[in-house]
Design goal:
The protein has 480 residues and is of the alpha/beta class. The protein is built from 19 helices and eight strands. Helices cover 52% and strands 7% of the residues. The chain has an eight-stranded mixed β-sheet, sandwiched between helices. Helix 2 links the parallel strand 2 and strand 3.
Length: 480
């Protein structure tokens, strides 16, 4: 066996196959391997026919075909399967060889694997890969992180095969140490949940509140896609609204209103709670899917409560403004979470680079992300997108319509949890004072949890004996 291949890829499901073909298109020699080796032969005989892709029928054969340092990418189901393959690979590898996990892995697993492989003298990369099957084939968004020494080894390959921004920049950059790549991908997926929920709510406001037919909404979204909301998700929603089946009927209207999920939005919400970050919109998007799954209960409840006149007295453009303002809040919250995670896990995240990586190839790709990159280019230490001059200006332009839409939805009993929580977060974030002083008083009353005073120093805690029967001993306190 002659060691001539640049990289090996394990896992010949559609994503793995398409990444191999993408690498081949860009001049890289790839070894294909699969646990079920008959899939290797099928792939070479059909999808990879006429290419320079090489097949291997054992791990030993695969490793023997690779140039040193060896680079092996796993595109297998996240979880135990990744650990099993790593265990099988390690006996065949030498110090400096690299294992890449391209699956939808939860970031704590990447942190663990990076430490274990580095202790064994090997390198590890955990990379988010977004864009679905088409992205994998023609240019995904890629978010690699892990062993710093691994980046020069994968950079030429990843930046060649990834999507490019309209300016030609590669939608792939180094995210940071150990689990940073998979963490950024997790937040990407959480924001994706939020974007999808917001668009669904805008659709529902037009359908239920304005009584618009699908074709009219199709035209509206076509216009929206020419402005600040220009994005992949608006684009496909536009197309979905126009789609008709073989009988000429709207396919969308035949789809049951119960949304599924695979867990990455939930991971984002749980981590936000762990880090004490108010990422409320992604949380509402996850819960909205959970509520949609209670179809039978909802149908029963609809019979108990009388219908409300859902007529909205707003225009489609006011709904567009509410959608845009809510989207700004969602991304602001996502970048708040990234900033806190960088502090918590010791990562040096480049927020402008993250926005650029998401600019093309991925599901949340949009023109909007170019504005986010520019915001961080203006101020690398920007604490929140809401106070960036560009985004603050957009919020001010949209605020009146945003409030009108939210109020109308509430009066018309049209559920828009993501729009509502975005507005509530904005109102809380812009408020110099909140009623949390009462919560602290309550906590101190029943549990002696102490409080800070407006006329004292921050970090100096006090306790009041509210009833005259309690003591002066305070409880420990925890600040999220």
């Amino acid at each position: 066996m002659e060691a001539t291949a640049d990289i090996a890829l394990i896992g010949l499901a559609v994503m793995g196959q398409n990444l191999i073909l993408n690498m081949n298109d860009h001049g890289f020699k790839v070894v294909a391997y699969n646990r079920t080796t008959s899939k290797v032969d099928d792939f070479l005989a059909h999808e990879a026919k006429g290419t320079n892709v090489i097949g291997a029928h054992s791990i030993a054969e695969m490793v023997g075909l690779l140039k040193r340092p060896r680079k092996i990418m796993l595109m297998v189901k996240a979880g135990p399967a990744v650990d099993e393959f790593i265990a099988q690979l390690k006996p065949y590898l030498e110090p400096g060889d690299l294992i890449i996990d391209g699956g939808n892995t939860h970031f704590p697993d990447s942190i663990r694997r990076a430490k274990e492989l580095e202790a064994a003298g090997l390198l590890y990369v955990g990379t988010g890969v977004s864009g679905g099957e088409e992205g994998a084939r023609f240019g995904p968004s890629m978010m690699p992180g892990g062993s710093e020494a691994a980046w020069p080894l994968v950079k030429p390959i990843f930046q060649a095969i990834c999507a490019k921004t309209p300016q030609g920049e590669p939608c792939c950059d180094w995210m940071g140490a150990d689990g940073a790549g998979h963490y950024v991908k997790m937040v990407h997926n959480g924001i994706e949940y939020g974007d999808m929920q917001l668009i669904a709510e805008a659709y529902w406001l037009m359908k239920q509140g304005l009584g618009m037919p699908n074709e009219a909404m199709h035209q509206v979204l076509a216009e929206w896609n020419k402005g600040e909301l220009d994005s992949y998700l608006i684009e496909i929603t536009r197309d979905i609204l126009a789609y008709r089946d073989e009988n000429g009927e709207a396919t969308l209207d035949k789809i049951l209103d119960t949304a599924g999920q695979k867990g990455t939005g939930k991971w984002t919400g749980i981590n936000a709670l762990d880090l004490g970050m108010p990422v409320t919109l992604i949380g509402e998007a996850v819960f909205a899917r959970a509520l949609s799954a209670l179809k039978d209960e909802r149908v029963s409840a609809a019979k108990v409560f009388p219908a409300v006149d859902a007529t909205l007295h707003v225009s489609p453009d006011e709904i567009r403004q509410a959608l845009l303002a809510s989207k700004i809040v969602s991304y602001a919250q996502g970048f708040m979470l990234l900033r806190e995670a960088a502090h918590e896990y010791g990562w040096k995240l480049n927020y402008g680079a993250i926005a650029m990586v998401w600019r093309g190839g991925c599901i949340i790709r949009s023109a909007f992300l170019g504005n986010i990159k520019e915001a961080f280019d203006r101020d690398a230490g920007l604490r929140n997108l809401l106070v960036d001059p560009y985004f603050a200006g957009l919020i001010k332009e949209c605020e009146s319509a945003w409030r009108q839409v939210a109020a109308g939805a509430a009066l018309g009993a049209i559920p828009v949890p993501a729009f509502m929580t975005a507005l509530s977060f904005f109102d809380g974030y812009r408020s110099g004072s909140l009623p949390a002083n009462l919560i602290q008083a309550q906590r101190d009353y029943f549990g002696a949890h102490t409080y800070e005073r407006v006329d004292g120093k921050r970090g100096e805690f006090h306790h009041t004996n509210w009833t005259g029967r309690g003591g002066n001993v305070s409880s420990t306190t925890y600040n999220a």
